Amino acid sequence: QMVETQFVLSFVHRFLEHRGATTYFAFCYPFSYTECQEMLAQLDGRFQECRHMSPSSPLDSVYYHRELLCHSLDKLRVDLLTVTSCHGMLEKREPRLDKLFPDTTTPRPRRFAGKRVFFLSSRVHPGETPSSFVFNGFLDFILREEDPRAQMLRRMFVFKLIPMLNPDGVVRGHYRTDSRGVNLNRQYLNPDAELHPAVYGAKAVLLYHHVHSRVLPGSPDWRAYVSPLGTSSLSARSSNRCGGGGAPSPEAALSELEKANNLRNAPGAWPAGTCFGPSRERRLPEAPAPGGKDQAAWILPSSHAAERRQEERRPPAPLPETILPRDSGLAYYVDLHGHASKRGCFMYGNSFSDENDQV
């Protein structure tokens, strides 16, 4: 029935007469933390050769990387997945961020030139299980090796995916809160690394890519790339296979990345007054110099002295608030939820006064 615009569902259940039996009632079709970990373990096996990929790998290969972002308060895994193609792959890897990525045996994923980041997360409200089914459907789609839509999206973006932001609430059967009764979706303004590790980690990753994944002038447009081995701009067969089929043709002396970097280094590809190599970070013209050395410390690597020395040789990165939205390295940020009374699929987005901006 409807009571004050809310749906009320009533039912009668006769309990089993066996002593000690446990009966579970699910608010919606469940998707558990254990099922999520089993799904990710299967993907690890399916894409295990991705660990050995390099800038010389076939460009339309699926690049899949799973890592431990942090542990929850109940010591459960908060996983971060990286999915893209090998277009723009660089030798260097992303840095370790402060208080995150505790598993030092797993390297950080590669960095990619000319690609912005698409960030997708779900289950910050653990009882909203439809978010997991939408997440899993998207993950299945973006990992399809031969779907031309997925291939094009992997060329265009680096996908950063967090399947469960609140694993503690999922395991405990909570609807909106973590193990301390806190609604993590209200903690983004000032997350605490000790109290809200998953939100702290998600925000740190977002801010890092906002600054460091910007597409610089003269970057290659991977959407327009045509394979030197075929007439089609999208490969017709999967390239995530071990063994033959991936050998470059003899005339392809330069890799596509090298050609792209040569184009980026050509005269006129960079605005006047900028002095840096194609893999270095560019300070935006309107960005004021950071006031103090530690002002942007929250997005700089903290682990190794060598990494830090390497960072210090670069031009200083701009402060996040000085980067305009159109210049951000973050192309999209989608957080998946569910709803107790709305039906079908719907979106909440930023509110703009101008109708055209809203569209």
Automatic annotation (TrEMBL):
Residues 305-315 have a biased composition (Basic and acidic residues). Residues 271-296, 304-323 are annotated as: Disordered. SUPFAM superfamilies: Zn-dependent exopeptidases. It holds the Pfam family Peptidase_M14. Coiled coil: none annotated. It comes from the Eukaryota. This is CBPC5 protein.
